[in-house]
Design brief:
The protein is about 20% helix and about 30% strand. The protein contains five helices and eleven strands. The strands form two sheets. The chain has a seven-stranded antiparallel β-sheet. Strands 1-2-3-11 form a four-stranded antiparallel β-sheet.
Amino acid sequence: MKTGKFHVAVLLAAVLSAAGAAVAQDVIDETGPARREALGARRTGEALWPVPPKAQWGQVIEQKGKNIWKDAVYTDREGRWQLVYPSTMTDFYGDSLSRERMYRYPGQPHISCGIGYKPRVFENLGEDAPVLAPQALAERRDELVALMGEEGAAATQVQMIALPSPAGASGTPVQAIMFDQRGRLLEPLGVEREVVMRSLLVSDGEDLVHAFCTAHAGQKGWVEKHVPLALRLTELAREAGE
């Protein structure tokens, strides 16, 4: 495993304990304003998701969705992105105060979805990173896949995709790097069997967001279908620099 990036190994080192999917113990500031204005979102012209109410930041909200397991939506503690995953994944790994999350199916820990970020990947773009990083993401595609992929497992099906846009939203869909890997990728969490993993990479200002889901080979179809729907980028991910 490489260090300094979001992987199951990072989550393992962070806490190494299940806390349950309910994160009501998190203390959320419901009244404070966003730290910066979301000016970059207007400049990129992307169809981004609206910023959720601040009371939901850092929280898991269950909703009735098309997924046969229904859906749970985890909102980043800074309101910048969301992870959509089956609400049946009630085993939570990670630090409840962190922006990095991983949820697993009880009794079948190889079935998981997670999200995290690697900071300052696009810091060379300066204050314009929220606007310039989406293009840099495509230009640096292979480099970023090598940076974030699990060592020892070849990245396949590497491509740029358009994420689904919010209903009624206009603008260019958010572009993401998508790639697959296969192997014993969850060994740091005690999962000995081989899994398939599909990952998404998007830019969040100068940071790089990594969302993924894993399952056994027989559920490869679910992973392929669900992962493009699993990540939502909000307007705050394109906020202007301070």
